[in-house]
Amino acid sequence: MRTLALTIAAVSLTLGACASDPSEGYSFANTYVESVRTISVPIFDNETFETGVEAELTEAIVKRIQQDTPWRVASGTVADTELTGSITDFDLRTISFTRGTGLPQEQTYELTVDFAWRDNRSGTVLVERQEFRATGAYVPDRLAGERIDIGRREAVAELAEAIVHQMRSDW
Q1: Domain tally, the chain
Q2: Which of 18, 87, 96, 120 is the most buried (most CB within 10 A)?
Q3: pLDDT digit string, tens, across residues 6-32
Q4: How much is the pTM?
């Protein structure tokens, strides 16, 4: 009996610490916009000379939406909302050099995008970000021999996750 009373007290204290509004503290409430059921994600524009990354990023975003959100991906004209974007820059940066040869030992692949999420029903912009960046590291030196594709995939995956995370309601 005493154990039951302690358990009830502990649960009461724990639930008492939760808020019904996610912006006011811990909450079990949904942090996604509940009025949205479907979203369209056309292929992002690409203003860089790095070909094919726009299709990879769009595919990664669609997969992330399908895995992590309650929304369903639909075609443009019938979807409640639309996520559009443009890859504005890509850059390779050398982090470290191999001693003796001066060749790159570790590099990063950085992508920069602008994106907007609009409600097709009202025309309202739900989320908009400029110069949103993600980076993927890779080791091209002779011993590891990683290709640039490793950094590119990592940057695309990180960017897709961050974009979908930005689409959550303010909390």
Answers
A1: 2
A2: 87
A3: 566 555 555 555 544 455 555 555 567
A4: 0.79
